[in-house]
Amino acid sequence: MCLKRFRKCFFFFFLSAFQLYVEKQKGEILGVVIVESGWGSILPTVILASMLNSGPAARSGKLSVGDQIMSINDTSLVGLPLATCQGIIKGLKNQVKVKLSIVSCPPVTTVLIKRPDLKFQLGFSVQNGIICSLMRGGIAERGGVRVGHRIIEINGQSVVAMAHEKIVQTLSVSVGEINMKTMPAVMFRLLTGQETPIYI
C-alpha cells in the first residue's frame, strides 16, 4: 500500500471514530472478546468479536460486534499485538468508567478483487476457507483481502459448508470482479459455536 493511500485511510478512520464511555463496577471485567483485524487491514487494530450478555460492554448498548477499537482511555491500540491489547483491557478491572474510541464496522468485510484474466494471480492462499497468506501489492491485497479471515461468500454463493477443494476451484476459475465476504476466523468460530469465548 502506498504511503499516500495509507495516510488518506488513516485520517478517514480517525475522522470516523467516535468516543464513548462504558460504566462498570470496580473489580468487574469489561466482558469482551477481541480479535486481530487481520494482516492486510488498512489500519491494524482489534475488533470486538463477542460481548458477555451481562457484562458492562453489552449493558452499555453502545457497542456492536465488528466494531474496531482504536484506543482505550486515550491509549492507542493501533499496531499493537493482540496480547498487548488484551493486557490493556484486563488492566481496566479496577476502573469504574472506561473511555473507548470506536470505528463502527459490520462484522462481515466485503472484498472486491478485480482480475482481468486468468494470467493474473489472485495473490493469496486459502486453507479450509481461511486466508493464510497474502502477496504484497497483489490484486487481492488491493481488493481488501485480510490474512486470518474466513471466506463466507464468493460472488453471492455461500462457501461455509463448501469443501476446501471446491473453494480453491471456484477461486481459480473466477475472472472479472470477484466479490467475497469474509470475517475474522476466530469471530466466525465464536458465532457458530465452534469456540468457547473467554471474556476479559
Please provide a written account of the structure.
By secondary structure, the chain is of the alpha+beta class. Strand 10 and strand 11 (157-158) form a beta hairpin. The longest helix has 14 residues, at 3-16. Strands 1, 2, 3, 4, 5 and 6 form a six-stranded antiparallel beta sheet that branches. It has a four-stranded antiparallel beta sheet with strand order 7-12-10-11. Strands 8-9 form a two-stranded antiparallel sheet. The protein has two domains: 3-106, PDZ domain (Pdz3 Domain); 109-188, PDZ domain (Pdz3 Domain, Roll). The chain has six helices and twelve strands. It is elongated and about 60 Å long.
Provide a short characterization of the protein structure:
By secondary structure, this protein is α+β, with helices and mostly antiparallel strands. Helices cover 24% and strands 32% of the residues. The model is unreliable at 5-12 (pLDDT under 50).
Structural class: alpha+beta
Oligomeric grouping of the chains? single chain
Number of strands: 12
Helicity level, as a percent range?
10-25%
CATH superfamily of the largest domain: PDZ domain
First-to-last CA distance: 33 Å
For the biggest sheet, the summary is: 6 strands, antiparallel
Assign the CATH topology of the largest domain: Pdz3 Domain
Strand content: 25-35%
What is the overall silhouette?
elongated
The number of helical segments is 6
Radius of gyration: 18 Å
**How many structural domains?**
2
